[in-house]
Amino acid sequence: MAITSTVSADGSQVTIYIQGRFDFSSHQDFRNAYEKLAKTPSRFRVDLQGTSYLDSSALGMLLLLRDHAGGERAEIEIVNCSQDVKKILLISNFEQLFSIQ
Amino acid sequence: MNEVRNLKILVADDTDSDRLILETIVRKEGHQVFSAKNGLEAVNIFQQEHPDIVLLDALMPELDGFDAARQIKHLAGDELVPIIFLTSLQDTESLVHCLDAGGDDFLSKPYNRVILKAKIKSFNRMRGLHNTMIEQRDQLSQHHQRLLQEQTVAKQVFDNVAHNGCLNASNVRYFLSSLAVFNGDVVVAGMRPNGNMMVLLGDFTGHGLPAAIGAMPLASTFYGMVHKGFSMSDVLREINKKLKSILPIGLFCCATMIDFNFRRKRIKVWNGGLPAGMIYRQDGTVIPMRSSHLPLGVLPEKSFKDDAQFYDLDIGDRVFMWSDGIHEARNSDGEMFGEERLLQLFEENDCSQSAFDEILLGVKNFIGSGEQDDDLSMIEICMQAPENVSHPNYNFNQSQQMAQVEWELRFEVKPTSFKSFDPLPFLLNILTEEPDLRGFSGSLYTILAELYSNALEHGVLGLSGDIKKTPEGFTEYYTQREKLLNEITTGFVHIYFAYSSNIEGGSLTLRVEDSGEGFDYSARQGKELLVTGYSGRGIGIVEKLCKTVRYYGSGNMVEVVFEWVNND
């Protein structure tokens, strides 16, 4: 459940990578990945390439990120989802809130 | 250049004076001399002493120089033994005669010492070149031999990997030809535990060793997965992923994969880049199965498409697959065989059993003396009733017995372990041991995770989801959860599974009961899934994934039924 993140050179974009299961146990690490930045980025990417499973608390955390990033104005991409992960996101209608690829 | 010395030189001349003069000149140059007075002697000495260069008088008694030259050249075999004719003859015909008999040069009498010396030197140089050439030729041939041996051994390994499936089944015929020991084409066929036969014909770009290297992981992945019951889409994805990661750009595998369901008389076809295979029905109609995908090993995992076409067949209908070798076979005029000629063969055929042979013969006749410039592969599978599909490693009855599978599992998490033990990976592993459930691991994880965390958090720990309404609350909720878990000494979560499947599909019933007070579930009925809000989403997702979700008792027990249909 390792969470890592990278910030683009100009600080405008942060990418958060989630390995393994994405659930409540990664809650603190996930928040740290975007809350403790020197500059608030304008764009966010959540890379789920390494994410095998997720549950509803992970969905809650994605919403927390969305609020932090400005709610309706937030620019958040969720990328590299596996079929399984995408299915859960779509069941929850998250494509209305995030750009899912 | 260094002086040439110490060669063994045979001098043959019947005139004593001439021979003596020659011997003296040659010996003075530092060479070892052997003398002969006629051709017969010359041949004998040659056999005993193996001289490096022969100086031969043309006209001698017993055996003349011409015949002696022929015999010496014959005895020398591969080795270059220069023969210089010594002659007083000057007419063109005689001189040509000398060379025709195997002579390499001639020297006119009287002898010129400087010219003789130069000729010996020049021929010695030629001998050196010749020896180097022979040595290299032998080395080359050795290397080639070794390469062929290595390839033969490698091919055995390859064949063991590639052909350990059911290619020898009663309803399968195939033909593979290749230009080299290795073939750029690969044909694999295996039986799934449910009695379906899975067949893959692949054509790697190029042929020989590079193509065969790609075929190895393809074959081992195929057999590893098919026998365990993975679906066609899982197998294709895995092969594509493997090939993509190991093959260099430009090397990929055009392939057709077909899953034969003999029970339902239905096939599922995926074609990525191979020429259309044909369904040849009993009534004579021919249906092409065209490529609609990119070859294996081209697309990254995420972009790979696994959608397939279904066709319903009757008993006796035949399915043909081939590599482009058949279409691109050329006749001596350079014309290609092409799909039209192939369809023509089907039209002319009046006995479907012999279609396979007629096609092969048709292509071979077409090529005639033309050169075969690609691998030629073809496979035919006949639709049969399941009990008529037989091969040594497959038993129809055995597979029928596996048709119905039912089991139950009860599982309890004790209070001492709530904090440290996460039952989810453990239970998911058990579930995904069932081949049918493997494809649903993502959904099953989510269902399990939601039901278990509800039972633990709301039931056993008595936490209210309402706390999670704000970002701070979200964190607070998990802080409280942590704290309560450390203190908990009583309570339980029971998990119960009932699995039931047959070849048509199956269901998994999942019951989770906790030691908590439960809740008023009548209020839940018909509630729509919320898009926003940090919590309260879990059970809504479960409802979408499962056929039914029912609460029992005081609301401390929930039972969900997950269903699936085997559509392959």
From TrEMBL, chain A:
InterPro entries: MlaB-like_STAS, STAS_dom, STAS_dom_sf. Residues 3-101 form the STAS domain. Pfam families: STAS_2. Signal peptide: none annotated. It comes from the Bacteria. Gene3D superfamilies: STAS domain (3.30.750.24). PANTHER family: ANTI-SIGMA FACTOR ANTAGONIST TM_1081-RELATED-RELATED (PTHR33495), STAS DOMAIN-CONTAINING PROTEIN (PTHR33495:SF15). This is STAS domain-containing protein. It comes from Cellvibrio zantedeschiae.
